[in-house]
Amino acid sequence: MLDELRGELDEHVTPLLRDILEDTQKLLRQEFALAKVEVREDAKRLREVFGYSIAAAIATALSAGLLAVSAALLLVAWFPWLQPWAAFAALAFVCALSSVVLLQLVAKKSRSIRVFPDQVLESLREDAQWIRGQTFT
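Given the sequence above, the corresponding C-alpha cells read:
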C-alpha cells in the first residue's frame, strides 16, 4: 500500500518539480539575456559620452590655462606693484577653490547613478515571487 502511494506520488510530483525547474531555468536565461542587452546598450552610450567628455575636458583645460595666464598678466598690467608670481598664485587659488566646489557637486550627483539596470531588477523580483508562488502553493 505504501509503495503504491509512493509510486503514485513520484509519478505526479516528479513531473511537476521538473516543470518548475525548467520554467525557472528558462526565466533565469531570459533575465540574463535581457540584462546582457541592457548592459550592452548602456555601455555603448557610455563609451560615446565618455569620448566626448574627454575631448571636452581637454579643450576646457587648455582654455582655462590660457585664460588664467591672460588674467594673471592682466592683473600685473593693472597693478604694476603686483609681482607676477602673486598674480599667478591668486588665480591658482581661485581655480583650486572652484575645483573643490565642482568636485563636491560631482560627488553629490554621482550618488544617484544606478549600477544595475532597473528593468532587470524589477523583473528578477517578479520572477522570485512567481517561483515562490509555484513552490509553496
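The chain is about 90% helix and 0% strand. Try to locate this feature in the C-alpha cell string yourself.
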